[in-house]
Design goal:
7-stranded mixed beta sheet; Luciferase, domain 3; 4 domains; Rossmann fold
Length: about 725
């Protein structure tokens, strides 16, 4: 292991304390000894079931360190607490060492709950000088930092509070990573393209190749064109995944113009709203895509820039010149010629939009800090190795597709395979096999098409198939295992975050349906938050009250990859912030003993019926089974909404259904008994069923809940 400088931050109590670091190796042990006043002031506690790595155990033996071995499962918490107390009384800090890179396991961390012991959480940060080495808890690193968090008082849920302090320390540590302050994303992309000139973009349509050195030359030419012909600070890009969309986005970044990748499946109303919000006047597209997407509400011809026409014209005159410049000139010369400015880390680099209907959608400015933070987080989790390739077949109007499919491989110098049609399962499965794809990101519906048309041999080299955008259906997990023998990686993502919040392989983390506090059943366990993400659980009704992590409430997040304000919203007036930098996700969830995040659904998709919180999405799944509806059906058949009760107090549940042509009086009773027979609460059953011709959905495929709710109120004559 390689390590260089080390430093500490935070305060250490003068009185001996139980010390709980979230990661250890020999360098960390030595740094802890020094920070805590020397070897004579430290005692080490090791549980037999989770011993640190051999090098740490050898160091403790060689230095004849004070401390004790224990077995918490056999000796019991009370006995271990007494051993700790004796060392504290003798003037020594007791440091609990564990082998787990993500901290002490919950079954061991909670040994001091409800005891008289307080605890000092320590967040260990391991930094590297290069992006490729990521930011993790193991392996090589060049900088070590120990962050001593505030002491957690003795009492209930001590272990959970320690884990929360670790996550907050991790978010602070990522915010201080040198790469976020010393390197801008445009400079990092330029440097990587120069360092990896022979890496390729491979077009999955015709198998043509474009090297990174040619990609850089085309991007530079188009960047200079944009600077001459575009006066606004943002420009729309209406292109499918492919080399042209990558060139367009790179050129915009180099030109200092924020690319706004347009959702070409959006309704005319949504498109007009996004354009007005962003102040976009010009759009980059290509002839072929216009003919393919004729149903799209295309802007006027005078506002369109046809990228393939521009590149053809520029290539005839300047391609050879810029090929030579890219080949022989250095980064400083090219950066100067492009006029790349070292802008503020918080300056806008890209613009995305939240997922909502009509004018409810908000613009989300993505800063350089957000995107670089996201790249660091992803590098530490799913970095493709040298020789492995990345598939970019999902639309770039979703941030996670841009990050995993374009920015990450460009920064790492990995080959990118592109394909413009994400639902073409057979062709994409062939590309994954033929080109050795190890990383890809897609939605549940597209993943279903991929694995249905694939074979185990085609997916043998796939290391990470990230599923984002919406909750992953349980049947898709099973389908992937049975057809291609692949464990999918479910991501909890938000439009307001440049990186996924959590990632969990379905082979290791399962979907559970158990009774939890407040009778919320059917949580989706999404794994532990990514390094650099802090989580708090807040009360649903008393919005300023922090709940114990295990109690379901509203999930709040903090980290450098999270948005700080929406478009046209001043940071100091931001409605997304509370106590400075915390962001409200609008989702209901909790953390388990291992720090894994359980999500039950969106706040607006919960109703309080007879004192019970009813999760609409889980109830819909059961209603689909009772009514024989295939959850994989492309057309949504059912939607459960909560509307004000006609009696004037509370809510009632209304089922909008395209299955029912005529609603009969006994239909509601039948569903209620079906719920009870399946051992679900009767409160989950709808009070009314309304037959409707169709269920409206958003352009991303999710339910347009507000439209459905207002429609149900209108049909029932209820004021919303």
């Amino acid at each position: 292991m390689k390590h260089g400088t080390s430093e500490t931050s935070g305060s250490i109590p003068s009185a001996p304390t139980l010390v709980l670091p979230d990661c250890v190796d020999v360098a960390v042990v030595q740094a802890l000894e020094q920070a805590l006043g020397g070897r004579e002031h430290v005692a080490w506690m090791v549980d037999n079931s989770r011993r640190p790595v051999a090098e740490v155990m050898q160091y403790l033996s060689d230095t004849r360190a004070a401390g004790f071995m224990t077995d918490l499962q056999r000796s019991g918490a009370a006995a271990v607490v007494e051993q700790v107390r004796q060392f504290l009384l003798n003037g020594r800090h007791v440091v609990f060492l564990s082998s787990d890179g993500s901290g002490i396991p919950g079954r061991l961390l909670n040994f001091a709950d409800d005891s008289t012991l307080s605890a000092l959480p320590v967040c260990v940060s391991m930094f590297n000088d290069t992006l490729a080495d990521g930011m993790g808890k193991n392996g090589k690193y060049s900088h070590l930092r120990l962050r001593f968090m505030p002491v957690q008082a003795a009492g209930a849920a001590l272990g959970a509070r320690v884990r929360g302090a670790w996550s907050e320390g991790s978010a602070d540590a990522l915010s201080e990573h040198p790469l976020l302050h010393d390197v801008s994303l445009p400079h990092a992309l330029l440097e990587s393209l120069l360092q990896h000139p022979n890496a390729m973009i491979i077009d999955g349509v015709n198998d043509s190749q474009l090297s990174y050195k040619r990609l850089l030359a085309f991007s530079i030419m188009f960047c200079r064109y944009l600077r001459k012909h575009v006066s606004g600070k943002r420009i729309g890009i209406i292109l499918p995944p492919g080399k042209l969309s990558i060139i367009a986005n790179l050129a915009c970044i180099f030109a200092g113009i924020s690319p706004v990748n347009i959702n070409y499946t959006a309704t005319p109303e949504e498109f007009r709203h996004h354009v007005a919000q962003a102040g976009v006047e010009r759009f980059i597209t290509e002839d072929r895509f216009i003919h393919k997407q004729q149903q799209f509400s295309w802007p006027s011809q005078r506002d369109l820039i046809y990228i393939e026409r521009v590149l053809t014209e520029l290539s005839n005159n300047r391609q050879r010149l810029w090929d030579l410049v890219v080949r022989w000139a250095g980064k400083k010369f090219i950066a100067a010629r492009l006029g790349l400015e070292q802008k503020s880390p918080d300056s806008e680099l890209m613009l995305y939009f939240t997922e909502a209907s009509g004018t409810a959608s908000k613009g989300v400015p993505f800063s350089q800090r957000m995107l670089m933070s996201a790249a660091l987080q992803l590098c530490g989790s799913v970095q493709p190795e040298r020789g492995q390739r990345v598939l970019s077949a999902s639309p770039l109007y979703r941030a996670e597709n841009m990050l995993a499919g374009v920015i990450l491989p460009l920064l790492l110098g990995r080959d990118i395979i592109t394909y413009p049609t994400p639902g073409a399962g057979k062709r994409i499965s062939e590309l994954i096999h033929n080109y050795g794809v190890a990383l890809a990101v897609t939605s549940p519906s597209c993943a279903r098409a991929w694995v249905r048309n694939g074979t185990p041999e085609q997916y043998a080299g796939m290391r990470h198939l990230l599923i984002t955008g919406e909750r992953m259906p349980d049947d898709l997990v099973q389908l992937a295992r049975e057809t291609v023998q692949l464990h999918l990686c479910e991501c909890y993502s938000l439009p307001e975050s440049a990186a996924p919040i959590t990632m969990a392989a379905t082979g290791a983390v399962t979907h559970i349906g158990t009774a939890l506090p407040e009778d919320i059943a059917g949580a989706t366990n999404l794994g532990t938050p990514m390094p650099g993400v802090a989580v708090r659980i807040m009360d649903l009704e008393q919005k300023d009250r922090v709940l114990p992590p295990s109690k379901p409430g509203v999930v709040w997040l903090r980290g450098p990859a999270m948005v700080q304000h929406y478009l046209h919203e001043a940071p100091e007036d931001s409605t997304t912030a509370r106590s400075g930098r915390w962001f409200c996700t609008g989702n209901v969830g909790s953390l388990d003993d291992e720090g894994m995040l359980n999500i039950y659904g969106s706040m607006h998709r919960f109703s309080k019926i007879d004192g019970e919180l009813v999760p609409h999405e889980r109830a819909e799944e059961l209603l689909c089974r009772l009514l024989g509806v295939d959850p994989a059906d492309e057309l949504r058949r059912l939607a459960l909404v909560g509307v004000p009760s006609p009696k004037g107090k509370g809510e009632i549940l209304v089922l909008l259904s395209t299955v029912h042509k005529v609603v009969r009086p006994h239909d509601v009773i039948t569903l209620r008994y079906g719920m009870l027979n399946a051992r679900y609460p009767a409160a989950w059953a709808p009070d009314r069923i309304l037959a409707v011709p169709s269920i409206p959905v958003l352009s991303n495929g999710k339910l347009d809940y507000e439209y459905c709710r207002r429609g149900a109120c209108r049909m029932l004559g209820i004021k919303c």
